[in-house]
Amino acid sequence: MSAIHLLPLGGARAELAAALAGGLAAAFGTAVEERRWEVDLESFFDAERGQYNSTSILVHLKRHYAPAARADVRVLALLPFDLFIPILTYVFGEAEVGGSVAVVSYCRLAPERYGLPADDALLAERLLKEAVHELGHVASLIHCAEQSCVMHASSYVEDIDLKGPAFCSVCAAELEHRS
Amino acid sequence: MNKGEIGILVVDDEMIVRESLSKWFREDGFRVDSAENAAVALRKLQAAQWNLMLVDIKMPGMDGIELLQRVRQTNREVIVIIITAFATVDTAVKALKEGAFDYITKPIDPDYLDHMVDKALQQQLLLRENQKLKDTVSELAGPGEIVGESPEIRKVMDLVRTVAPTDTTVMIRGESGTGKELVARAIHAGSPRKYFPIVTVNCGAMTESLLESELFGHERGAFTGAQYRRKGKVELADGGTLFLDEIGNIDMKTQMDLLRVIETKQFTRVGGTEVIRSDFRVICATNRDLEAAVREGTFREDLYYRLNVFTVDLPPLRGRRGDIAKLAHHFLEKFSRQMNKRVSGFSPEAMLALKAHDWPGNVRELENAIERAMVVAEGEVIDKAHLPLHTVATPVRDGKRLEDIEQRHIEQVLRENGWNVSRSAAILDIDRVTLYHKIEKFGLKRTQ
Known about the structure:
- By secondary structure, chain A is α/β, with parallel strands linked by helices.
- Chain A is 34% helix and 18% strand.
- In chain A, helix 1 crosses helix 3.
- The longest helix of chain A is centred in the last third of the chain and has 19 residues, at 120-138.
- In chain B, strand 1 (7-11), helix 1 and strand 2 (31-35) form a beta-alpha-beta unit.
């Protein structure tokens, strides 16, 4: 990939987006451009569940944003809202495996959601791990059995805290091979 | 097991559910496919191997429970997890009663889903390992495996019962495939040595030096490639039974070594000086005419008398045709279990063909024929067409293949030399063990 376009949507916090851009640039060794994109997110809102449909957001990104970007650009939408895919109760993010777009939310990553004191540093760290994880899927990587690898599957925030922000040697080699 | 080797089939009429779950499992590295209804699922289940199925309970046409019932009729291994929109005690109980591993309610908690799938696959692995162990144990079991009720086999079983509790050396004689090793195991299982191992040595399958090292072991550096000290089969049989299969095929030097160890129960490893003691009982087997070999001078007379203390003669299968049906059903059940197939019997034509066949390869040939028939059989009954009898019944003799010419030539040389194997082997410029293998392979027999 030649660049990552980071799209903060739905009023995502600017300082979190800025920190994420820096982290992604270091993780992938590529330029990260923060872009503004106007989109009506309400059409992706499921009133019954009180959540946003991440699959529909991905499809929308793919149809309406990606064609305008260069072919070797990868797109990551950043949201403050809770996301779901229809069969599951929630997801932290979703990606087009082997494609060009991904979406990540920090709604469930904030410590205060679990009755703990706010900790922005921890929130930024978790967000970076999940964003790298989803962009790893975009680069065709699958879940990794290595506990410390960022591609290790995480369903709970505790799982995210247990893994590191970097790819293990196997995933790093696979990423290198695919790029 | 590599996750890519594990197959998950998602069955749901809603496309979004199929796509979401498929994507979820693909990200985990599983092999995933989906089906929009029960009919498609059954076709896919037949076409490929699946470890786990996630099945929506509510689908138009055949619902999830009915699909589960159909799956269980033919496949006892695949794990089925039922997906329901609203879990009620009734549906849950019904699904579990029909053989589902568990049920899960929509929308699914991602962590719960991952744990349930992990747990299910773990259980499947344990069940498979358990089945493998059971099969191994049952194959190693003694007298229970000797199948048949004919007077001929009853006589064999009587002899086994008589000789087993003693410590007498036993010689089992019979054509290839008659079950000589099974009888050896039955004798061992009925002896006071049953809590110690029965160690088998296939004497016909090895060269002189290999057999020596196999029997007596070797010290480190005894020969090129001997990087470690290795215990031989004689040493490993200490306390138990040493089963020497194809005893008629061993060379003169090993015959002498063997005679010494049988008489003294002492030996040294190849390349070693330490005298090792081993307390073992000897059971041997052969399909050769040992008396003729003694007359020809290719088998030591003293070893012959040392081994031929108590003889059990195994009849060829054509000599106990009354057991063919029972044996055929025994193998059918065995492979039915192993292959997870619901084949329950034979058509009358198939059974007639089985009983009429000559079985030159004996019980082993029958077992192989049933295994092959089980592979190709699609219904619940094995038909005559499924049996490979036409290919194995008559050896090809008039063909133009190199193998046919070799067979005819070997037969001619043996005939010209009065079936003197050593002389024939010298003329053919091959060693005796190779010639014995060829005789066995082509099913050559001495005719008057």
